[in-house]
Design brief:
With 965 residues, this protein is mainly β. It has eight helices and 69 strands. The strands form 14 sheets. Strands 35, 36, 37, 40, 60, 61, 62, 63 and 69 form a nine-stranded mixed beta sheet that branches. The two termini are 27 Å apart.
């Protein structure tokens, strides 16, 4: 049967379909309601991994998304594009690789692509805006703006119409670019803070390029946005046929003959009728091999023969043994008489379907096809089918059919959206039914109903992107308590000698906000509002069943405190320190540099509890950061390396370094990546980039040695020459003189008993020094005067916002300073070590960590462990084991001390656990761990809600579930 459906609808029709409503009303690129129901599994929506022709893994999944719907006056309205079927591969799909792909639940193979690069110019948008940039529905998102030396840099993302975006990118037109990075290959070890801050105005990402023209903190104008688009894709709906054919001979394929003749430029493949009299198609083609450049528009026509009107596409495979690596081996008909020499392997694709981006789905013109490219490689990553016209569900029409899927037996809608109980402005019952008549639970969840019918059914990676603004609220939702996933028990537990730079168990319970772990909005002297928060992380814990005990390895427990961005001196900024607000006074940072070293490609080696072992990590100083080579791609056969800087907490710093050599847009290459990378004060300059290792010529990143802070709020003092100001009970500040024009002030600090007196001139505070504020510690130190030692230490600093006022000089004074020094015991509780983390952009304090240098043992005799002690001597938190039988943990909880009361968490082993890994509180570090496991956590949340068991992941049950899904 010929199933070649080629849509010929003109592009004008697509424009008309999507220009009915204003761009602002289009759901493309926008997220559904933050509280939308999520159902991870439905039989008709598949999720499975396969291997392509070359044995490369491809993770495929399908989902249905409803967004921007409204329920009003007994009707549920869904706009055009609001109902979206998504088929996605986590990698990409390209011609000549036999990449698998799902089409409405049917297994297909990508055969061909028509690609192009779309360039949009002069796009202006405001902070927080997600602005449409083309008719297809791509949006540019201005997410965030921060500063260095008081100059702005911004973080952006290009959002596909489905809502997916791969990463945020940082750009700025205010700083030197990567090309200006000087040769630093002579630097080695710790050096002083460097002045330069690097950030490119153009972000190069393989097939994509985004260049900012100008921007400030609230608005940005982009000179150009270039990104790949897929115009057309051809799929084969059936397993291909492999024909072994001897040169100069022919083989029968149905009622046709296929000949192959050797020529200098390849093989002439000729297709004739059954008798060989009529030539249906003829062409010289070359054998297909794994080189990536062959799918370029200028090259790909030389590697295949398509027979017009005959539903055939023929390729030549050089090494048919490679077919054995594929999960779906082609139907193969070998030649007789044991032919071995001079034999070609012809691959014949049939049942071809061609779809065009923006055109109707061939089997159902109610739906529009969307083809979305991988921004790095330009290959197909996602196919969407969206409703072309708005529709309404009400009492008379309570269902809307999804797109019709192909079937040899019964071509029918792949799913049906049903809303069968709408009352006024609430829907109390709606669900999705698949092609096999399986349905989801009632998606309203409660008797109160919902004001929309938004939902997400399935497990495509797009789910993670569209939840960026709401995932914290969803995961911390208290409606069903603290979700606890049961552990998979093994005979031999995972044992890590030290958990520094590692993440906790991805199934670790998330306790969310808990009294005793602070989180609040704070305002600095400049009026900037920042979120300051603290939390607790336990990672790498395990049950030592031979000794009937629970072990938390070194660095396995850490207290974390951080703000929404780095914490800066001279601004009166605060952070939490064990439940109390602390004021940062000053800091000491350096630049750690390394040169001439190798970093191997990282391969996950999971043990029983899924902890990966990263033996390839390259340390960057002592307990500072490590380099991790996490991903490798070939861009037209040139290796691309993705390298992450991993912090002590186990989270990644900023964006990864994307490196490749030998790529040039000027020379006509399809892809471009920098051959070296610099972002802020961190840089990497490779000597060689390969698939499995990178030789690094020079690398540098900030490291922080110490931070000084106080619990007492700094006091502003306005002094005329000769005037004095007491600093606490033991010290006095005196202004001797000042020069307002030069920005200088000479002050004296003394002990009140007269035993110690020092004089210092602060400044100059002028345009030259302001250009390095507030990040450069040399300039910061020139404006501060530290005095005395130990518990009597005080500090005075110039008011950099208004240094002189009414003929007087202004200062801020700090008393009772305390010091957090890296890799030293915490002053308030020596059982814990101080591990301050630095911002990789700008040398400022990013996070305060306190962790255990020695293993923590919990057993029946010692079921409790107290965390670091607060100023009143009480522990901020305690770990309490309630029920442990020597092998399984049946009950345990966290206790906190807050305002003379003890608060207890829920049972964190409601289902038996083999570890006590946990995430408590909410800050940037915990957010990073949650984001990495968002899909599985959200799925488990649904299992917890319904009391159902997740689909089996191993053994015969898993095989059966996948085969009969």
């Amino acid at each position: 049967m010929n199933k070649r459906f080629v849509s010929g609808v003109a592009a004008v029709m697509f424009c008309l379909l999507f220009s009915v409503a204003p761009a602002a009303e289009s759901p493309h690129g926008l997220a559904p309601a933050g509280d939308m129901p999520f159902i991870p599994d439905l039989g008709g929506l598949r999720r499975q991994s396969f291997k392509n022709q070359y044995g490369q893994r491809r993770d495929l999944s399908e989902a249905v998304l409803v967004r921007k719907s409204v329920v009003k006056n007994g009707k549920a309205s869904v706009p055009a594009g609001g109902l979206c079927y998504i088929s996605e591969t986590e990698q990409d799909a390209a011609p000549f690789r036999r990449d698998p792909f799902f089409l409405l639940g049917e297994h297909a193979y990508l055969v061909d692509l028509a690609q192009s690069v779309r360039t949009v110019r002069d796009v202006t948008l405001k902070k927080g805006e997600k602005k449409p940039v083309d008719m297809a529905g791509y949006r540019l998102w201005f997410d965030y703006a921060t500063d260095h030396y008081d100059l702005p840099y911004i973080q952006m993302a290009l959002i596909a119409p489905s809502g997916h975006w791969p990463m945020e990118f940082s750009v700025s037109s205010k700083f030197p670019g990567i090309k200006d990075l000087p040769d630093r290959s002579r630097l080695e070890g710790d050096v002083e803070q460097l002045d330069e801050f690097f950030l490119d105005p153009a972000f190069e990402y393989g097939a994509s390029r985004f260049e900012v023209k100008d921007h400030d903190f609230q608005k940005a104008t982009f000179a150009s946005l270039s990104y790949p688009v897929i115009e057309e894709a051809t799929f084969s709906l059936s397993r291909p046929v492999a024909l072994d054919l001897r040169q100069e001979e022919y083989r029968l394929y149905g009622a046709k003959r296929i000949y192959a003749f050797r020529e200098n430029e390849g093989f002439r493949v000729r297709v004739t009728d059954f008798g060989g009299d009529k030539v249906l198609a003829e062409k010289v083609i070359r054998p297909v091999s794994s080189q990536g450049y062959k799918d370029d528009d200028k090259e790909k026509d030389s590697y295949s023969l398509t027979v017009p009107g005959e539903d055939m596409r023929i390729e030549i495979a050089v090494q048919p043994e490679y077919l054995r690596h594929s999960d779906f081996v082609p139907w193969s008909t070998e030649v007789p008489h044991d032919w071995k020499d001079g034999v070609l392997s012809l691959i014949v694709y049939r049942d071809l379907v061609t779809v065009k981006n923006g055109a109707p789905w061939p089997l159902d013109h109610r739906y529009i096809v969307g083809l979305e490219a991988n921004l790095l490689t330009g290959k197909l990553q996602r196919l969407t089918l969206e409703n072309a016209e708005p529709f309404t569900l009400d009492a008379e029409r309570d269902a809307f059919d999804g797109p019709v899927k192909h079937s040899d037996v019964w071509s029918r809608p792949a799913f049906r959206l049903v809303a069968d109980d709408i009352q006024g402005d609430r829907v109390r019952s709606y669900y999705l039914r698949d092609a096999f008549f399986q349905r989801t639970d009632n998606l309203s969840f409660t008797d109160k109903g919902r004001k929309n019918i938004d939902c997400f059914i399935g497990r495509t990676p797009t789910f993670v992107s569209i939840l960026e603004d709401s995932f914290l609220n969803r995961l911390a939702m208290p409606d069903f308590g603290t979700e606890v996933q049961g552990s998979h028990f093994t005979s031999f537990p995972s044992v890590m000698p030290n958990m520094a730079f590692h993440a906790p168990d991805p199934t670790a319970p998330f306790g969310g906000l808990m009294r005793g772990f602070g989180r609040e909005q704070v305002t600095n002297r400049r009026g900037e509002r920042l979120t300051s928060s603290e939390g607790l992380v336990i990672r790498g814990s395990y049950v030592d069943w031979k000794n009937n005990r629970i072990v938390i390895p070194p660095a396995g427990l850490f207290y974390t405190s951080r703000n929404a961005r780095n914490v800066r001196a001279l601004n009166g900024e605060t952070f939490y320190m064990l439940g109390r607000r602390a004021y940062i006074a000053t800091f000491e940072s350096t630049t750690f540099t390394r040169r001439n070293f190798d970093i191997d490609f990282w391969r996950v080696q999971p043990d029983a509890s899924l902890h990966p072992i990263y033996w390839q990590d390259q340390p960057l100083g002592v307990n500072n950061k490590v380099l991790r080579f996490t991903e490798s791609h070939l861009l037209d056969d040139r290796p691309m390396a993705q390298i992450n800087v991993v912090k002590y907490s186990g989270n990644n710093f900023g964006a990864p370094f994307e490196l490749a050599q030998g790529l040039s847009r000027e020379n006509g290459d399809r892809y471009y990546l920098h051959d070296r990378f610099a972002e802020g004060a961190t840089w990497i300059e490779p000597e060689f980039v390969g698939e499995t290792y990178v030789r690094v010529k020079s690398f540098g990143t900030p490291a922080i040695q110490s931070v000084q802070y106080t619990y007492e709020k700094p006091v502003r003092a306005l002094l005329a020459p000769g005037e004095e100001k007491p600093l606490g009970k033991n010290h006095t500040l005196k202004l001797l003189s000042f020069d307002e024009r030069a920005g200088l002030a000479t002050v004296e600090l003394r002990r009140n008993d007269g035993s110690l007196t020092e004089t210092r001139t602060l400044g100059p505070l002028n345009d030259e020094t302001r250009a390095f504020l507030p990040q450069h510690q040399r300039v910061v130190n020139s404006l501060q005067f530290q005095f005395d030692e130990g518990k009597n230490k005080v500090l005075a600093e110039m008011d950099v916002k208004t240094p002189f006022e009414k003929g007087k000089a202004a200062f801020y004074t700090y008393v009772d300073l305390k010091k957090l020094e890296s890799d030293t015991p915490f002053e308030g509780d020596p059982r814990f070590m101080v591990r301050p983390d630095v911002c990789g952009h700008c040398y400022q304090l990013n996070e305060v960590l306190l962790d255990n240098p020695d293993p923590i043992i919990l057993d029946k005799e010692h079921p409790r462990f107290d965390g670091p002690r607060m100023a009143d001597g009480k522990p901020q938190f305690s770990i309490v084991i309630d029920s442990f039988d020597g092998e399984m943990i049946h009950a345990w909880h966290i206790e906190t001390n807050y305002r003379k009361r003890v608060f207890k968490s829920a049972n964190l082993a409601f289902q038996p656990r083999n570890n006590i890994d946990v995430l408590m509180g909410v800050n940037g570090t915990i957010e990073g761990f949650l984001r990495a496991s968002l899909m599985e956590r959200s799925a488990w949340q649904e299992y917890w809600r319904t009391g159902a068991h997740p689909h089996p992941e191993r053994g015969l049950d898993a095989w059966t579930a996948l085969k009969f899904q």
